[in-house]
Design a protein that fits this description.
254 residues; alpha+beta; BirA Bifunctional Protein, domain 2; SH3 type barrels; 7-stranded mixed sheet; 31% strand; binds biotin
C-alpha cells in the first residue's frame, strides 16, 4: 500500500505543449516526488497513441499526466500500468453512471464512442522501469469534435449535463489511486481479471480484420504480455499486438 494522494501533488498550468513531455522533462531535471500530477487546460502539442495528436478543446476537458517510479515492476509487466489506470478511469465513469468499457489496449469507450485515451511513456534502463508518465485525456464538457475524430463522446454527451472539471479530476485521482495501490501491492491477477471483465465487446461475436485475414471471433481476454486473445470460429485462441487487429464500433473501424 503506497498511500498516494495524487490531488495533493497537482501542478496546474494554463498551457503546455504536452503534459507528458513536461513530466518527462521534469523527471530528467528535478526528479519530482512520485505521484506528481501535471495538468494543463490546453495543450498545443497533445500527443496520442502511435504519433497521433490529441486534440482537446481549451478549458473543456481533462488532460493530465501522473508520474510514477514503479521500479518494483518487471518491465515485461509494464502493461499492468495501463490496466490499473484504465480500471481507475472506468470506475470513476461508473460513479457518474456512465457504462464504460476498455477498448484494448488504451482507450475507454461507452456505447457511443471514445471518451478517454491513455498514453504511457516509460523510461526503462538496465531492465528497470525508472519512471512512468501516465497521460490521460478525458472528454468532459466538449460537445463538438473535429470531423476526423472517430466516434468521439464526452461526459457531457453521455449525461447531458456539464460537470465541473475539478470535481471530476478529484474523483478520477481517487479511483486511480485505488488501482495504483493494488499494483504496488502486486495484486496482478486481480488487476488482469478485472481488466478482462471490463473489455469492450468481451464474449460477443464480432468480425475481426487482421490485415487480409478476416474472421469471426470473440474477445476472451489478454495474456501476460498484454496481447489481445480472440477465439476464432474453430475455438483456436489467437494473440494480437496493438494495431494488428481491428473491428467495427458503430460505423467506424477501430
Ligand atoms: C490516445 O488515445 O491516442 C491517447 C491520448 C492521450 C492524451 C493525453 S492528454 C494528457 C497527456 N499528454 C499528452 O500529450 N497526451 C496525453
Amino acid at each position: 500500500m503506497k498511500n498516494f494522494n495524487l490531488y495533493e501533488k497537482l501542478i496546474r498550468a494554463d498551457i503546455l505543449a504536452s503534459t507528458n513531455d513536461f513530466a518527462i522533462d521534469l523527471v530528467k531535471s528535478d526528479e519530482p516526488v512520485e505521484g506528481t500530477v501535471i495538468m494543463a487546460d490546453f495543450q498545443t502539442k497533445g500527443k496520442g497513441q502511435k504519433d497521433a495528436h490529441w486534440i482537446s478543446k481549451k478549458d473543456s476537458n481533462l488532460t493530465f499526466s501522473v508520474l510514477l517510479y514503479p521500479s518494483f515492476l518487471d518491465p515485461a509487466n509494464n502493461f499492468y500500468l495501463s490496466m490499473a489506470l484504465s480500471l481507475g478511469i472506468v470506475d470513476m465513469l461508473q460513479f457518474y453512471n456512465i457504462d464504460a468499457r476498455i477498448k484494448w489496449p488504451n482507450d475507454i469507450y461507452t456505447k457511443n464512442g471514445k471518451i478517454a485515451g491513455i498514453l504511457i511513456e516509460n523510461g526503462i534502463q538496465n531492465d528497470e522501469i525508472k519512471y512512468s508518465v501516465l497521460g490521460i485525456g478525458l472528454n468532459v464538457n466538449q460537445k463538438i469534435f473535429p470531423e476526423d475524430i472517430k466516434n468521439p463522446t464526452s461526459m457531457r454527451i453521455e449525461l447531458e449535463t456539464v460537470n465541473k472539471r475539478e470535481t471530476v479530476l478529484k474523483k478520477l485521482l481517487v479511483s486511480v489511486e485505488y488501482w495504483f495501490n493494488k499494483l504496488y501491492d502486486l495484486n496482478l491477477n486481480m488487476i488482469k481479471n478485472q481488466y478482462e471483465q471490463k473489455l469492450l465487446f468481451r464474449e460477443q461475436i464480432k468480425k475481426f480484420y487482421a490485415g487480409d485475414d478476416i474472421f469471426f471471433g470473440t474477445i476472451k481476454g489478454i495474456n501476460d504480455n498484454g496481447q489481445l486473445l480472440i477465439a476464432d470460429e474453430s475455438d483456436t485462441i489467437r494473440a494480437f499486438n496493438f494495431k494488428e487487429v481491428m473491428y467495427y464500433h458503430k460505423k467506424n473501424i477501430i
